[in-house]
Amino acid sequence: MKPVILNLIRFDLSISFTAHLPSLNSDEDFRKSSTLSQMKYVRPYTLLKEFQKKTKELAQRQSLGGASLLGFTVTGDYVSIGYFMPKSGIDSEYRGIFSMKEHDIDDIAIEFRDLNFNYNVAGYAIGLPLTKEKDNPEVAKVKNFVAELNGTRKLEGLKYTYFFERSASKYLADVRQNPQDPAPPFVEMWVGKFIMQEYFDLYLKDHYPLDEDEDDED
């Protein structure tokens, strides 16, 4: 099956977003839900360790392809993704989307699994909209999608984390205020860029390039 990612495009890490975001460490529902699924929730910095570990393992095997991280969120009827592949010659990201109207959750899980294999994905960084609301429907939509992915049992052992993002949400809000801006799915295709970029700036930037001697323990 060919990937259903639309218009896979490279771009550089030229945009910097800085934010002081709330911690997820006290959000026990993430941990409780992860124990019931095939995927495993980890903290944002623990996912960084997984990325470092996979990078070292592939280097020891002299693999031509390095490790990558995949970031995504759910926007409307689309899953917007971006992934970080530092061993592609330059530090780079890619972006794309899955249409949830055109593909069921099993098809999407299979495509995710193929991406994991083809690009040595160490884990998923999943963006949640930054909000003060306790029961935000947009946050629930992202979590429900992850729960459905878990339910397919096609991503066994895959580690993922949640983090609060605001750049993608701001981008969507700005675009939706201007009816002359491009319509979906073009708009949603860019969201994955902001998700992966923000995770990079919040958790990866201070640890990259990777220190080969860094302790892998949490």
Provide an overview of this structure.
38% of the residues lie in helices and 21% in strands. It has 6 helices and 7 strands. It has helices spanning 28-34, 44-60, 105-118, 137-152, 167-176, 186-204, and strands spanning 9-12, 40-41, 68-75, 78-84, 92-99, 121-129, 159-165. A 7-stranded mixed β-sheet has the order 1-5-4-3-6-7-2. Helix 3 crosses helix 4 and helix 5 (167-176) packs antiparallel against helix 6. The relative contact order is 0.23. InterPro entries: YqgF.
> Looking at this structure, what is the CATH superfamily?
YqgF/RNase H-like domain
Classify the helix fraction into a percent range: 25-40%
Distance from N terminus to C terminus (CA atoms, Å) equals: 38 Å
Bin the strand percentage.
15-25%
- Note the main sheet: 7 strands, mixed
Strand order of the largest sheet: 1-5-4-3-6-7-2
How many domains comprise the coordinates? 1
So, CATH architecture? Answer: 2-Layer Sandwich
Rounded mean pLDDT score = 72
What's the total number of strands? 7
CATH class type = Alpha Beta
- Separate helix tally: 6
Give the helix/strand class: alpha/beta
Assembly annotation: single chain
From the 3D structure, determine the CATH topology: Nucleotidyltransferase, domain 5
What would you call the shape?
A: globular
Order of helices and strands: EHEHEEEHEHEHH
Poorly predicted tracts of residues: 1-37, 210-218
Rg of Cα set: 17 Å
